[in-house]
Amino acid sequence: MQRNVIIIGSGPAGWSAAIYLSRAQLKPLVFSGEKAGGQLMLTMVVENYPGFPQGVHGPELMTNMRAQAEHFGAEVMETSVTRVDFSGKMKKVWARTGTDNAEEMYEASAVLISTGAESVWLGVPGEQELVGRGVSTCAVCDAAFFKGKKTVVVGGGDSAMEDTLELTKFADSVTVIHRRDSFRASKIMTKRVLEHPKVQVRWNTAVKSIQGDKSVTGVVLEDLKTNEETTLQTDGVFVAIGHTPSTTLFSGQIDLDEKKFVVTRFVLGEKSLTLAQGAMQNGFLQFPTMTSLDGVFAAGDVVDFRYKQAATAAGYGVMAALDIEKYLES
Amino acid sequence: MSAQHITDADFQNVVVKSDKPVLVDFFAEWCGPCKMAAPILDKIADEFAGKLTIVKMDVDENQQTPKEFGVMSIPTVVMFVQGKETDRKVGFGGEQGYRSMIDKALAGQQ
Lengths: 330, 110
Known about the structure:
The complex is a heterodimer.
Chain A (H helix, E strand, L loop, with lengths): L1 E7 L3 H12 L5 E3 L13 E2 L9 E2 H14 L3 E3 L3 E5 L5 E6 L6 E11 L3 E3 L15 E2 L2 H4 L7 E5 L3 H11 L4 E5 L9 H8 L4 E4 L2 E8 L3 E8 L5 E5 L2 E4 L3 E3 L24 H8 L2 E2 L2 E2 L10 E3 L11 H20 L1
Parallel strand pairs in A: 1-2, 1-8, 2-5, 8-21, 10-17, 11-12, 11-17, 12-13
Antiparallel strand pairs in A: 3-4, 6-7, 7-8, 9-18, 14-15, 15-16, 19-20
Chain B lengths: L3 E3 L4 H6 L5 E6 L4 H16 L5 E6 L5 H5 L7 E6 L2 E7 L3 H16 L1
Parallel strand pairs in B: 1-3, 2-3
Antiparallel strand pairs in B: 2-4, 4-5
Helix pairs in contact in B: 2-4
């Protein structure tokens, strides 16, 4: 069976595209993946998604987006894609959907990549050994285990601020460790963190290693100005230093940038500018969300290293859906 | 049928004294990744019924068992064979991850 369009990934970009493409009667097939819903499944309340004055729970938002896509006829497979072949006119995608988990092949005229991004680990000694024993990338999931305990959060962006505030509900103290002398998080989140009585900040500091046998007992810190090393006692280490795009599946098939983000014609950097310049027609950019390969589109955090918001990802997904609709007509 | 819920009070009888391997899913209602794991574990529970038991423990309502086994992150899935921990997976493990834990435990049984 040859389909119109396959969507890989099920964050706000994937579901928004699925809503538009299903309303356009194109019957998209969504591979939601095992980590369906993406990063928003790991958040508590999303306060900046338009339309929810009281905020909305991340998982609830994603469940609703999915329901909306299915309502208009999107087909959903809850498996992860195992490999792809985009070289031909028909784009091929494999997933373990057969009996006994056998791989099956799916074909479509267009593919949308909306696989998003995943947390980056520190990569210091002790970290992987202690995951789930005090080391975590999901404060929303694990904060409750640190009632009355000492914790640290590593990072300086919005997700580090969210983790810090979540931990203050349970932990006795939260120390934020940050490499620079100011946070890159939004002003409102930064203010809440800096004004919180349970929070301390160690600026210009990096984590060298994590200590502990059965569970975390401390971290070795380096002052980046003096190179002085100190040990801080702690029961938990929450890592929030950023995300890396989920693009391993596509490497070698479409252009990725030096940080492995998918390059589209939508200009965010040097490589996308070059692609865009080759796709101008009568002064208009054709299919801004298309990648370096015809028929392969991308949207959301897998492309976007700049804005990275739930709302921008949703908008991106809509742009891709409209581009795909036009592409399929041509 | 799907994975049964157990409490601190049941743990000895259902898990420690079981003659079959038991997979325990430590979860909470408000945890996103736990919601991803739940339907997979329910499905697998039915498939392996009779050979292996899969149970769930809500860490909000039961604190003693998670503490005893050093569970500090959810979801955490722990395999018990003859009442002893033999394997554990922290964070969402994916269907393949859970299946390979089960295969390993069942292989050890023969």
